[in-house]
Amino acid sequence: MAGSWDGSHDTGSQSDESHQFDKLHIEPLYDAFVCPLTKQVMHDPVTLENGQTFEREAIEKWFKECRENGRKLACPLTQKELRSAELKPSIALRNTIEEWTARNEAAQLDMARRSLNLGSSESDIVQALRYIQHICQKSRINKHVVRNAALIPMIVEMLKSGSRRVRCKALDTLRIAVEEDEDVKEIIAEGDTVRTIVKFLSHEQSKEREEAVSLLYELSKSEALSEKIGSVNGAILILVGMSSSKSENVLTVEKAERTLENLESCENNVRQMAANGRLQPLLTQLLEGSQETKLSMASFLGELALNNDIKVLVARRVGSALINLMKSGSIPSREAALRALNQISSEASAKVLVDADILPPLVKDLFTVGANQLPMRLKEVSATILAHIVNSGIDFDGIPVGPDHRTLVSEDIIHNLLHLISNTGPAIECKLLQVLVGLTSSPATVLSVVAAIKSSGAIISLVQFIEAPQRDLRLASVKLLQNLSPHMDQELADALRGTVGQLGSLMRVVTENLDITEEQAAAAGLLAELPERDLGLTRQMLDDGAFQQIIYRVRRIRQGEIRGIRFVTPYLEGLVRILARITFILPDEPGAIQLCREHNVTALFIELLQSNGLDNVQVVSAMALENLSRESRNLTRLPELPPPGICASIFPCFSKQPTITGLCQLHRGTCSLKETFCLLEGQAVEKLVALLDHTNDKVVEAALAAISTLLEDGVDIEQGVAILCEVEGIKPIFNVLMEKRTDSLRRWAVWAVERLLRTEDIAYEVSGDPNVSTALVDAFQHADYRTRQIAERALKHVDKIPNFSGIFPNMG
């Protein structure tokens, strides 16, 4: 066989190959078979009046040129004029040529058959495949010849060749063979041929991918084969990837896209496309398909996991259709629609769905009882959708959900939600609590929810969920109570004290493991929001050993030994606020003093002052240090002087006061950071002064309040001023006054400045600073009554107001 084909001929154009195969004959070629004009074997020979024979098409073209050029009709060979342009079909010659051609093609086809085995040379196989392409393109009848000769399976076998050139040519040959031929497609559909073709889509060589996708495009025109292509694992995934590829050539991308369009005829393929990110066909069928198809597509949409951007797009396209389906009477339709809406509902898509009027039917489904009520499992889905939507931050106060302009935060709606929460199972309770979490997270709606909860007396019931065994339910409950606590702190404190075990349960959540979870952060936040001066609550926590656990956790976080970066900030803030509670009961609770001593709580709060970036931690730490410092003067041990001797008692002039060293210059007694909480230890004053330059007004105010304990009555104010001078704290206090940041901060600054100006040297130096005087005058003119009094005294210290003036009564 090797010498039978013109093996030297390599790839060329299709016309070149056709011409080559037309010249390749097994039987001798007779001159009578060849047209003198085309020099090719004739297909439709005709004879002129002079007996010369030509290809019909060629001689007709010759006659036409003669007429167009104004020449007389003449024979192309003899150039003699013809009397007539009549063409007589040469039937006998045509039949002879056809028989000769058939014998040659059969012989050549047999040669091709013998070449189509994996043992043949690459060039022989490629030439055989070219010949099969050639005869298939000549006529549809030849495709039947190829099929009947059982060549299709042999071509498929060539896909296993180790030669890329052979594989590409085999794919291309199959494409030509299946074009507009259902019979050949049926052969391809048998066995694993389709799977083999699909595998070529993931080959490294772009040419093989291109040939494979072109073949699949032709096959996908058959509905039966569309289903089979889709059934091959990974086929649709790869095609979807190719259709959106930036690296494939344009032809391959286009063929992949058109193949996918053909595959859309099968519903299962549409579902696979949706699962692989090509949602448009599914959405189209959901909108335009039959009722059965809509139900099927909605059901599948309810199983898909979508990102937020896709959820928004899907909500815009089919949100209204799904809502209409949800409102239909059929439970299967309502279920399919609800599950689909559940998948596409999110904070991102909430506005789209709300604009599509999803809220009224959702609320109706939740509250309807009787013949038309939803099963509880579907009410849970409704509650989940509602929870997704309300957590979006939309102002629901103005969006009607029922008659009489009722909204989600209308009192009766909240009462109905609370009733459902108390009378359903854990799963739906969790979702309904999440709805309330969303509504209480918005400043626009929280007060309406608080009012409804107060009027229903439901706070006790809500607190009980803290002990629920289901983590999600506990989390939703704690987050809700945390949102309510700024508005119902005392009610919550009373409920926690009055309910056995709830406070302990919260503490167990806060300290249950080393990984910081959202639930722990929320529980810490809830405890932190409870009234800080509620003595009973703090004592209960003290008796339960809660503060020791808090101290342990705070120190572990500071040392980097506790994991959970995502929630560490709110968790630490909550822990520090809880711990600070102990400093509010120091005057009334010896046990609190003992705990602060044992665990050196003052040092811990000083360390926390340096929590850069955690403003709330710094604020609370400074407040706690203010309380601890104020208690110092009650804890300082004054020195005990030895009794005078006999001579000294008789002759006082001979007595000499003993000198005692090591006393605190501020409290005039024995002090320490650990035992008496004195801020002169541990560089506390320096760190507080450093915070006066903070950009957060609340941090500055808390730091200034703590510093002011050095200047209060009951301590040596002159020494307090001296301490501030040592740490260069005087100027920062005056700067706070001059910056006029907030009314509250100005009150503290005016108070501190007045105390500083009692020192003559400072008063003398400041009297020449117009900025300080201006700030004091401004406070004297515009501040509240008490601050104006203090500003008046400060101005007297710098001689800006005469001492005999009495604008304000002397308040001491």
Low-confidence stretches: 6-15, 17-23, 804-812
> How big a fraction of the residues is strand?
under 5%
Number of beta-strand segments: 3
- What is the count of helical runs? 44
The portion of residues assigned to helices is 55-70%
Quaternary assembly: single chain
Alpha-carbon Rg, integer: 47 Å
Given helix and strand content, the structural type is mainly alpha
Arrangement of strands in the largest sheet: 2-1-3
Q: Biggest sheet, open or closed, and with what strands and sense?
A: 3 strands, antiparallel
Note the overall shape: elongated
Calculate the terminal CA-CA distance, rounded to whole Å: 124 Å
What's the pLDDT, averaged over the residues?
A: 88
Protein described:
It is a single chain. By secondary structure, the chain is mainly alpha-helical. Helices cover 63% and strands 1% of the residues. The protein is elongated, with a radius of gyration of 47 Å. Mean pLDDT is 88; it is low at 6-15, 17-23 and 804-812. This is RING-type E3 ubiquitin transferase. It is an enzyme of class 2 (transferase). Its EC number is 2.3.2.27. Keywords: Repeat, Transferase, Ubl conjugation pathway.
